């Protein structure tokens, strides 16, 4: 009897005659019996069930299915299940072995972000798990994605624009040899906008839309959004007032009665500094200075 044969099916993407296919490959057991294989392809439905879309019987140690945009579309999670049997006893099949789910489409890594209003840049990778076909000689082998940000808060209109900034509004996924789970990839950075407002933690989403793509397989496809949670951080303040008394961000207090132009504040990690000019504003009896000008970069 055939029991578990450790067939270990794996799904990989492949271009066949310029069309996107998925290939299910499995190990041939070291059995002397001439084996045949039943390969069942299925996709995950919106209800979380697996719908069978194709069933093959083959002598080969692989099976193909085309992503035709009808019964198998971009955005689907696909499985292949393999059973083996001998020609003499087709009713006695080995135990079914299922592959890991293969997500066919565009992925964001990480799939969600939790960032803070601290100026740090967070790398977001966009990749296609399936190869990009060139529809013609005039078209370059790439997919262009237009990125946008939408605030998901209840009071988003009152809070103003989303406090998430991207390093690019458009990215190109250039075709490359498939390696691991990536057949094309691009990166950008995501930063929380320091808005000096105590507006609490805000949730936004990054959306990606395909631009100018004529292939029917890609045209009807919209990648999943990326959820970005921005943690609000308290804002620091510093002061220089009257003759002048100075209070720093961390609450230190001191005086500077001198006349001249001074560097009041400079960031150690971004292009931000404040200069202050002080003139004599005291009488004959006291030496004191007052702020008369300020410049900020």
Automatic annotation (TrEMBL):
<dbReference type="GO" id="GO:0009986">
    <property type="term" value="C:cell surface"/>
</dbReference>
<dbReference type="GO" id="GO:0005576">
    <property type="term" value="C:extracellular region"/>
</dbReference>
<feature type="domain" description="VWFD">
    <location>
        <begin position="236"/>
        <end position="297"/>
    </location>
</feature>
<dbReference type="Pfam" id="PF25776">
    <property type="entry name" value="Ig_VWDE"/>
</dbReference>
<keyword id="KW-0732">Signal</keyword>
<keyword id="KW-1015">Disulfide bond</keyword>
<dbReference type="InterPro" id="IPR001846">
    <property type="entry name" value="VWF_type-D"/>
</dbReference>
<dbReference type="GO" id="GO:0005102">
    <property type="term" value="F:signaling receptor binding"/>
</dbReference>
<dbReference type="InterPro" id="IPR057885">
    <property type="entry name" value="Ig_VWDE"/>
</dbReference>
<protein>
    <submittedName>
        <fullName>VWDE protein</fullName>
    </submittedName>
</protein>
<dbReference type="InterPro" id="IPR050969">
    <property type="entry name" value="Dev_Signal_Modulators"/>
</dbReference>
């Amino acid at each position: 009897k055939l029991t578990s044969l450790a067939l270990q099916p794996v799904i990989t993407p492949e271009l066949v005659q310029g069309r996107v296919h998925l290939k299910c490959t499995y190990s041939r057991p070291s059995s002397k019996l001439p084996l045949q294989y039943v390969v069942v392809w299925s996709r995950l439905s919106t209800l979380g069930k697996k719908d069978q879309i194709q069933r093959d019987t083959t002598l080969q140690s692989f099976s193909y299915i085309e992503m035709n945009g009808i019964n198998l579309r971009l955005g689907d999670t696909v499985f292949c299940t393999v059973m083996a049997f001998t020609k003499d006893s087709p009713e006695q099949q080995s135990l079914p072995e299922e592959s890991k789910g293969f997500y066919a489409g565009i992925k964001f890594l990480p799939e969600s972000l939790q960032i803070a209003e601290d100026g740090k840049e967070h790398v977001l990778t966009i990749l296609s798990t399936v190869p990009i076909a060139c529809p013609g000689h005039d078209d370059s082998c790439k997919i262009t994605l237009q990125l946008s940000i939408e605030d998901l808060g209840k009071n988003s209109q009152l809070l103003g624009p989303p406090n998430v900034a991207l390093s690019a509004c458009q990215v190109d996924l250039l075709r490359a040899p498939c390696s691991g789970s990536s057949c094309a990839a691009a990166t950008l950075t995501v930063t929380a906008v320091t808005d000096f407002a105590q507006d609490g933690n805000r949730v936004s989403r990054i959306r990606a839309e395909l631009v100018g793509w004529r292939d029917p397989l890609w045209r009807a496809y919209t990648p999943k959004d990326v959820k970005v949670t921005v943690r609000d951080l308290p804002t620091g303040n510093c002061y220089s007032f009257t003759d002048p008394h100075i209070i720093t961000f961390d609450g230190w207090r001191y005086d500077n009665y001198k006349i001249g132009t001074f560097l009041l504040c400079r960031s150690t990690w971004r292009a931000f500094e404040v200069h202050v000019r002080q003139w004599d504003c005291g009488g004959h009896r006291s030496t004191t200075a007052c702020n008369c000008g300020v410049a900020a970069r």
